[in-house]
Amino acid sequence: MSKGDSPTQPVSISVPEMENDDLVPGLPAPENKRFYPALDGLRAMAVLMVFFHHYVYGAFNTQNDNSHAWHGFKGALSWGWTGVDVFFVLSGFLITGILYDTRHTAHRFRNFYVRRTLRIFPLYYGVLLIGLLLTPIFHWVWHPGWILWPFYLGNYARYIWISGFPLNIETLENLRSSLPLQPPFILIFGHFWSLCVEEQFYLLWPLVVFLIKDRVRLRNICVGVCLLCLAARVACVFFVPKTYIAAELLYRATPLRADALLLGGLIALMLRGTEEKWLRRISRPVFCLFAGGLIAFEGFQLLLTHNLYQPRSGSSVSITLGYTLIDLFAGVVILMSLDDSSRLYRIFTLKPLRRLGQMSYGFYVFHNIPHFAYQRLIGSTVGYVRGSSALVALVAFLGTLILSYLSFRYFESPFLRLKDKFTV
Prior knowledge:
With about 425 residues, the chain is mainly alpha-helical. It contains 20 helices and 2 strands. It has a two-stranded antiparallel ribbon.
């Protein structure tokens, strides 16, 4: 154990410590005894990126305009999916901090899993249950692959069914959407795959942290697994059947994405040790390096091909090293968000962003489920005219905002208030 890593020595992190403010009164105190206000805003940014990808890029990607300008614009819109990676790195950072800070406390396993259960399960299973109960009314057809969702294994559904069905668009849509007897009532649960990845991580990582306890060994495990995941993705490109690669195995399988979560964990552990000052010192120049590199790369791509780069294009570099670079950038953004002198901190602590960030779980859950219902609503009122996609996005945003607020205020918050009651 290195100097400064004694379990009895107070943890020193130069982050502003705040009590719960008045954004949502009555909720329990932060679990890791530190409150990072800017990370609420970062959650909001991440969920808006995913929403943007599903409703704006997804709509524009169906256009038939083949002009260079249009393709370049679509390339600029194609980065929204990386909001999921931001969530992964952020979850790893926060959860590892909670686990490490409580590794010597009594009832640590019980407290952790009770708090996670009260935060995650009610809304997740509530939405699935409502869908099931409404099936006789709306005549939704449930695909056999959906049986995996209640077990948080839905991210593997499409790969299990590949062996039994030809992999095509219809098969993939069957696995992520209900097949209605009437077109207005299609539901989409496919975005739940990322919730499955995080839940699988929550099942294993606490055991590792609580059993090992030593910060340096945990740090080294994070580094080793991050490198191993990158190597595994590279190996998969060469040895896994292309059918599975095309079905985004490297993007959705937890063993191949654990590096995103553990990179966040690595940052949390380094901030609690002797590497803290070094890590904070390099965060700003590394952020500038990443941002400048991305701008230069996109500029070069635009000059060379007249199109901006689309990161989910399926190239071997994009789905191997590309994921690692995105996660590293997300980690640097987290570090910058902890610095109260940075511009990112000031942006992410804006009250509207923080409010949305606190409701981000519900926003993510609800945003894409009624996607086709929003499309049908706009199509039946104004028709599928130019600009209708933007109107669909606007209605979907307002609808999701209302649903997530009502859910957080009247459904999720009562469960959150039970955390202190059922933990010791």
